[in-house]
Structures are given as C-alpha cells and as structure tokens.
Specification:
single chain; mainly beta; five-stranded antiparallel β-sheet; four-stranded antiparallel β-sheet; 7% helix
Length: 136
C-alpha cells in the first residue's frame, strides 16, 4: 500500500477505483504506519475509502484503455465500433456514468460528426468513459 500514488488504481470492495487522495499516519504503538486511501470508482464514480498498513500488499486492477471509431448506435443503445486495424466490435453499450456522456455521444453522432470513443476495461467490465472528436 505504501507504493500507491495519486491517480493510480486500486480494488476496493471488488470495484476498480482511481486513487484521489492518500494520507499516511505515523508508526503506532504496534509498529506499522497506515495509509488511508480515498478513491472513486472508474465505472460508477462512487467514492470509496480504505485503510491498509504501508507494508501490506493491496489488490490493483489491470486497467486497459482503447480508442475506437464509432460506426453506429442501435435503438437499444448498443454501439458498433471499429478499431485501428479495421475490425468491428459490438457488445459495448452507451455509458450510464458520467452523467450526460451518453446524450453527448448520441447528439454528436446524429449531427454526423466523426467520433472516437474511449473504452476502458477492468475486472471483466467494459465501458465507454470518454469521447474524442475525429476532426480535432
């Protein structure tokens, strides 16, 4: 836990979280300094807190971020995406977090803009977490 950095990732209650604050307490009567970790869920934005001795190991998720071109949006919110090699992907839905991102994606797509969506995957969950405009 002592090697964690602000902006890094940690598993708290089986949720992948991004560390937003760390504070280390002094060595106590029993000889272990503790670190207090405050983090937000990368898929739901919920705040989570944890404490661990600095010498102990903590679970860290493997977080992968990829950018895809948006080809189509179905009526039920399913996205059709294309990666850099031209392979198509389906099965990713419009995001529920952060608020307003799904509406922003739909609006830009219906306006005919060339969009790139950022898909983050960790712990078996895949979700769109951002967009980039293709003409930028």
């Amino acid at each position: 836990a002592g090697a964690l950095k602000k902006g890094g990732f940690i598993c708290i209650n089986n949720n992948a979280c991004k560390v937003i604050e760390l504070s280390v307490s002094k060595t106590g009567k029993h000889g272990h300094a503790k670190v207090s970790i405050t983090a937000t869920g990368i898929f739901d934005g919920r705040k989570a807190e944890d404490q661990a001795p600095t010498t102990h190991n903590v679970a860290v998720p493997f977080v992968k971020t990829e950018t895809y071109s948006l080809l189509d949006i179905d009526n039920d919110g399913q996205l059709t995406l294309m990666d850099g090699e031209g392979a198509e992907r389906t099965g990713v839905t419009l995001p529920t977090y952060p608020d307003g991102l799904a509406a922003q994606i739909k609006e830009a797509f219906e306006a005919g803009k060339d969009l790139q969506v950022v898909v983050t995957s960790a712990m078996g969950i895949e979700q769109v977490t951002g967009i980039k405009s293709g003409n930028a």
